[in-house]
Amino acid sequence: MINNKSLSSIALSVAVALSGSALADTQDVQDMSDPLSVYTQAGLGYTDKGLNLKIGQAYDTGDANTMAMNVLEIKGFAGDAIGWNGRDADDSIDSLRYRNFSVDLTNGRGAQVDVNVAFDSDLGTQGTASYSLIQALPKMGPLNLYPLAGAGLAFGESFDQNNKGALEAQDRWDLHGSFYVVGMYGKLELTDNIWVNYNPMYMGTISGSDQFKNGSMEGSDSVFTHEAAVSYQINDRTNVRYFANWTENTNYANGDHRIEVNYQF
Predict the structure, then answer these.
(1) String of b and e for 68-100 (b: at least 16 CB within 10 Å)?
(2) Per-residue pLDDT tens for 9-20?
(3) Secretion signal: which residues (predicted)?
(4) Among the CATH numbers 3.30.70.1530, 3.40.50.2000, 1.10.10.10, 2.40.160.40, which is that of 4-264?
(5) Which pTM value belongs to this model?
(6) pLDDT digits (tens, 9 = 90+) for 218-262
(7) How many whole angstroms separate alpha carbon 264 and alpha carbon 262?
(8) Residue 205 · residue 219 · CB < 8 Å
C-alpha cells in the first residue's frame, strides 16, 4: 500500500520530468472537449474517495502527422480526511493509471496503451494493461462519436483456494488472463463552452484461469460499464468537469463520482 510519503515522492518525480521540457514548450491551444486532443496538462479531482492528481505531457513523435502524450493519474488519496464515501475511504492511494495516447491527424485514428494498478483491492494489488484503437467519426451536428476496440491482460497478486474453499494469498504475482473491450466515447455539444460526454464500455474475458474467466468482471465473465460527464470550459486553457462512473451491477447513486479541474499548458 502506498502512503502519503510515497505520494509526495511520486509527484516530485513527475514534476521534475515535466519541468525539463514540456512545460517550457509553446504549443497551440487544443480543444479540451475532444477525446482525441493531445496537450500538456494538469488536473486535480475531488472524489467521494479522496483526491485525484493528473499530469499529462505531450511530446514530439518525430512525425508531423501524429501527436502523442503520456498521462499519469494518482487516484483516491486523502480519502479518510476529505472524501465523502465513508464505506471504504482511507488516506492511502487507491490506484495509479498510466496512459500513452497517440493520434494520426490524417485519418482521426487514435491508439492508446492503458495501464491501471489498484492497491486497495480485496485481493491485494491487481492491475490491467490494454491496447485500444479509437476512430473519430464524421461530426453529426452537435454530436461526435468515437468507437473504440481493444484487448488487454490482467495481472497481480496470486490467490488460490485452500481445502476449505477460501482464497489464500500466495507469495507471487501471476498473469491472470486476457480480456477484450469494445465501446465508444460520445460528445454532445450544448453550447460553445458546455458539453456532455457518455462513454459506455463492454468488457469480457478471453482466456486465463477459471477464476479469472468466470468471475473477474464483477463476479461474471463480462460487464457493461458507464461513464458520464458534464463539462464547462472556463477559458481556452481551463475547464471544470463532473464525472460519474457506474456499471450494470452498480446503480448511478452508488457509483464513483468526482469533480475535476483541468489546465492546459
Answers:
(1) bbbbbbbbbbbbeeebebeeebbbbbbbbbeee
(2) 444 444 434 444
(3) 1-24
(4) 2.40.160.40
(5) 0.83
(6) 999 999 999 999 999 999 999 999 999 999 999 999 999 999 999
(7) 7
(8) no
